[in-house]
Amino acid sequence: MKDCIGCMLANKKEAVHVVYEDEHVCCFLDHLPYNEGHVLIVPKKHVRYFYELDDDTSNAIMYAAKVISKVIKMLYEPDGITICQNGGKFDELTHFHMHVVPRYEGQNFAEFFEEEEGELLIDQVRLTNSKRKIIEGIATLGNY
């Protein structure tokens, strides 16, 4: 879809920190991460709702979630990993995407869903370092 920000991000028409991709999905660091290592899994073809995913794309999403989760656990040693998808009015991209979020004990995950006011400073150096770590971590998995 021409004006869809999700399509533009997934197809790298906008700047993203890609950590993994295949023919169906592009996985990149969230530009405002809840924690370091927070990754979005976004289909390359336009899909708005979960129930619209074709089998190849949904399988690619689950495979990517599995690989990314394994690497996040290895690199960041979180107490848990949350995998979630927000649809309908709660989908700020108006394009299906799934979050893979490392979490630590004591964090209030309700803050993840609160809308921030004002402009946040994006630390590009930190995102670049996270990108490098995750790509290197995926490479150590071999043919996962």
Beta fraction of the residues? 15-25%
Figure out the total of helices: 3
Mean pLDDT, rounded to whole units? 87
Write down the secondary-structure element order: HEEEHEEH
Strand order of the largest sheet: 1-2-3-5-4
Could you tell me how far the N terminus lies from the C terminus, measured between alpha carbons in angstroms? Answer: 32 Å
Biggest sheet statistics = 5 strands, antiparallel
CATH fold description:
HIT family, subunit A
How would you summarize what this structure contains?
The chain is built from three helices and five strands, in the order αβββαββα. It starts with a helix and ends with a helix. The chain has helices spanning 5-10, 55-76, 124-141, and strands at 18-21, 25-29, 39-43, 80-84, 98-103.
What does this structure look like?
Helices cover 32% and strands 17% of the residues. The chain has 144 residues and is of the alpha+beta class. It has a single domain, classed as HIT-like (HIT family, subunit A, 2-Layer Sandwich). A five-stranded antiparallel beta sheet has the order 1-2-3-5-4. Strand 1 and strand 2 form a beta hairpin. Helix 2 crosses helix 3. The longest helix has 22 residues. About 3% of the residues have low confidence.
Task: Please give a handful of descriptors for the protein shown.
single chain, 144 residues, alpha+beta, HIT family, subunit A, five-stranded antiparallel beta sheet, 3 helices, 17% strand, globular
Describe the protein's topology.
Blueprint: H1 5-10, E1 18-21, E2 25-29, E3 39-43, H2 55-76, E4 80-84, E5 98-103, H3 124-141
Antiparallel strand pairs: 1-2, 2-3, 3-5, 4-5
